[in-house]
Design goal:
Length: 348
């Protein structure tokens, strides 16, 4: 049963504001915490789960929990953050950060400059690499699932398909979309990191052309060739055109097998997005660095002062007692006597 507007969860810690989206089996809500901060809560839709036999229902729940745990471990600035997981009644839930801003889908009414589009693609590509390191596939990469933070140039990957490996008719309705590779429409074809490569390449296709490519299912069934994006938008570089075409090959084994491999085809250097994300250092970081330098200088100055004080106290008086004639008769090693031992303090 879906939660209602104003319903309280976790003994009043969260309040449901509105329903955001219903997937095949998952449902997502906008909520607020006790401090009035927005967040997103994702859980399984019990009404749809009832359509499944008990064994399949339990298996799907286990799959959802397992994938949710992987997402919780995926810490990356361009992956939607999981704040915590919890149980409400008998439902497993994810409390996730609310990402304000528009989706890339809202920008597809116009063609983006190649440089801007590649900046977003690199950020999401590196986000997917972080997910893949957790053995987590997104399986539904598309402009509608990528948000650009308000007032920033930061793209954030959202709406992971946490039950996409579950082969059931109710979960396959979206798999003929232009962003879905052929393996998502068939249980006989293995899925892997190249599955997300196809979807991100299709996303870049749309950002640079403003047109949807023919879906993988249509291309395979009707032997339709994919129109190269450069034929639609001549401003696209040949390198980017070729990378998109390779990333959207129908046969999974003929695509770049890792996200890093595909980003390299685009000419996107490693770690570039991360350095741009950091931008200027916060003022407090600069202050700490300045204080550190001042501390070192102060220590050096203090050491110099201590040496000068020892010289004035012990060495200089000894020199004054030596007459000029005596100095000339003494050996060099005898001119400057060793200073007496410094006084001992209590406890030394």
């Amino acid at each position: 049963m879906a939660w209602k507007l104003g319903q309280k969860l976790q003994d009043g810690k969260y309040t449901i504001e509105q329903e955001l989206e219903q997937g095949c089996f998952a449902i997502t809500y906008l909520a607020k915490d006790e401090d009035g901060h927005k967040l997103v809560i994702k859980t399984l839709n019990e009404d749809k789960l009832k359509r499944l036999p008990p064994v399949e229902r339990d298996n799907l729940k286990c799959k959802f929990v397992d994938e949710a745990r992987k997402l919780e471990c995926c810490k990356h600035p361009h992956v939607v953050g999981v704040q915590k997981t919890f149980i409400e009644g008998q439902q497993f839930c994810l409390a996730m950060e609310y990402v304000g801003g528009d989706t890339l889908a809202s920008l597809t009414h116009r063609v983006l400059p190649e440089k801007q589009a590649l900046r977003y693609i690199q950020q999401i590509g590196e986000a997917l690499m972080a997910a893949h390191r957790q053995s987590l596939l997104h399986r539904d990469v598309k402009p509608a699932n990528i948000r650009v933070r308000s007032g920033q140039s930061q793209a954030v990957l959202t709406n992971f398909d946490l039950i996409g490996e579950w082969d059931y008719p109710l979960t396959a309705s979206w798999r003929d979309e232009p962003f879905a590779p052929i393996e998502l429409a068939s249980a006989k074809i293995c899925r892997g990191t190249c599955t997300d490569v196809y979807s991100l390449a299709a996303t870049l296709y749309v950002l640079l052309t403003g047109q949807l490519p023919a879906s993988a299912v249509v291309r395979q069934k009707h032997k339709v060739n994919l129109i190269p994006p450069k034929e639609i938008n001549p401003q696209i570089s040949q390198r980017v055109n070729d990378a998109i075409m390779k990333g959207m090959r129908l046969a999974p084994e003929t695509r770049p097998q890792t996200m890093r491999e595909w980003l390299d085809l685009l000419g996107l250097k490693r770690g570039r997005a991360k350095s741009k994300l950091l931008g200027k250092q916060p003022r407090w970081v600069m202050l700490v660095e300045i204080l550190g330098v001042v501390g070192v200088l102060a220590a050096m100055l203090s050491t110099r002062i201590d040496v000068m004080a020892l010289w004035e106290k012990y060495v200089s008086p000894s020199l004054e007692k030596v007459t000029p004639s005596a100095k000339s008769q003494m050996k060099p090693s005898e001119v400057i006597p060793l200073p007496p031992q410094p006084p001992k303090f209590e406890g030394s």
